[in-house]
Amino acid sequence: MRLLIALALLLLSNGSMAAPKADLWPYWQASQPTSSTAIDHSRWQQLLDKYLVVSPQQTLFRYRQVNDTDRYELGHYLRDLAGQDPRRLNRNEQFAYWVNLYNAMTVKLILDNYPVSSITKLGGLFSFGPWDETLITIAGQKLTLNDIEHRILRPIWRDPRIHYVVNCASLGCPDLQPQAFTAANHDALLEQSAKRFINSRKGVAVEQDKVRLSSIYDWYASDFGNLSQLQAHLNQYRQQPVQLNHVRYDYNWALNEAR
Length: 259
Known about the structure:
It is built from 9 helices and 7 strands. By secondary structure, it is mainly alpha-helical. The strands form 3 sheets. The protein has a 3-stranded mixed sheet with strand order 5-6-7. A two-stranded antiparallel sheet has the order 1-2. A two-stranded antiparallel sheet has the order 3-4.
């Protein structure tokens, strides 16, 4: 038993993880292209306006400062989302719905367990984080964070930029955006998020003749393609083009907390 615990702690300390594959959950594939229903994300926006700190290389969240009233408002927002059936929305509204839901639930997870040094500390003893925990029920279906990202967002939209907008409350993660996603702004925010991450050192750092990339590009290589295809993707957004000759990967799981 001690050996198993030691091995689990070693894996966690090294930041090792097996990235889930995109695996479509057909139940969520339906949409209503002619729907004009718009989901209200104002409660989430107000929380971002009040507690998100934007710096040149990182956005940080003031978890410690979130008061009881705003915790209630976050819970109210999530209950409102849970009361919707996203299959009745058009595709753009659906995208905003799922991304905001994912990010808001992640913030709530941290708040519910605060103080915590890393999201990877949550979950069971042998779990690397809380991503497989059932957190919400929508349209009669119990959902985890992994369900939203890997069984809904990735397989339905098939857009690698999704990795830049779902936030895991960690310093190594693409930034939590200061704007709530909407049907109208979602593509602009996808572009903005990709550009910001790829031009940050946590995304791509050139170190002499070597390049240090975020582990996202290793974990989800199936979404970005081979090194040549990944290089083309990165240089689409890079201010200074990069050559991927000697590559290593890294990721910082420390909490994205504003001190």
